[in-house]
Amino acid sequence: MIIVYKSEKRMEFIKAKIILTGATGMVGEGVLHECLSHESVEKVLLISRKPTGISHPKLEEAIQADMRDLRNLSEEICEYDTCFYCIGTTSMGKTEEEYKAVTYQLTIDFANALLSVNHEITFCYISAAGSDLSERGKTMWARVKGRTENKLMVLPFACFYSFRPLMLTPTPGMKHTHGFYKFISWFFPIGRLLKPDWFCTLRELGQAMIAVALNGYPRRIIEVRDIADIANRANSRK
Q1: How far apart are CA 99 and CA 87, in angstroms?
Q2: Which of 214, 172, 217 is nearest to 227 (CA)?
Q3: Are 66 and 51 in contact, with CB atoms under 8 Å apart?
Q4: How many CB atoms lie within 10 A of CB 62?
Q5: How far, in Å, CA of 36 to CA of 48, rounded?
Q6: Which pLDDT tens digit goes with each residue over 154-166?
């Protein structure tokens, strides 16, 4: 268990109880892996449309056909303090309306459903570097991501954080890593040296999300360099 210093006068033992979505994707699977192996995560509730096949003593799984209505899970959800929302889709080959249906509408509908049964929860959203908070830029995916961030920021969560990774080094051994990573992963250590604001590891992303769930963070938008710094500081305290 980690000792977390909340102030100069007091220190507390804290453990997180985390709801996680998107575990059948690369990012969600990697973040879940960090949650299950982290000593300060007490338990994880997976909310998913289909079984993941993952078994762990910390893990509970709720198969939910309608992610927009969570009232049937209200008792379970009220036990948790944080949600890691890792559902995402590529914009490639999609119209703006198609991309918006998953990236914006499903996210906001799920967030409102979550708030309807637990209004004291912290919401951590996986966004992307370059998201456009003005919602007026030329890049479609960035406008939609920015619109999603803007809407989530005004919802009455206990806290809201948007994590903006760019180039993620995958975690070895995961089932849902995209196939093209085996051709480009060799470049990641070089890329990180050349562009530290672009590259972090999926492991660092998961560790940073857990650290923010436990300790908070002074900014709601968390960029690549922040992700690496938060993870490194959390590891140095172990």
Answers
A1: 12
A2: 217
A3: no
A4: 14
A5: 17
A6: 999 999 999 999 9
Rounded CA-CA distance 81/58 in Å is: 15
Which residues neighbour 208 within 8 Å (Cβ) at sequence distance 6 or greater?
163, 222, 226, 227, 228, 230, 231, 234
Rounded Cα distance, 41 and 51, in Å: 22
Place of tokens 């007490």: 42
Lowest average pLDDT, out of 10-14, 23-27, 136-140, goes to: 10-14
CA angle 130, 132, 137 (to 5 degrees): 110
pTM for this prediction: 0.89
Helices (H) and strands (E) in the chain, counts: 9, 11
Eight-class DSSP state of 106: I
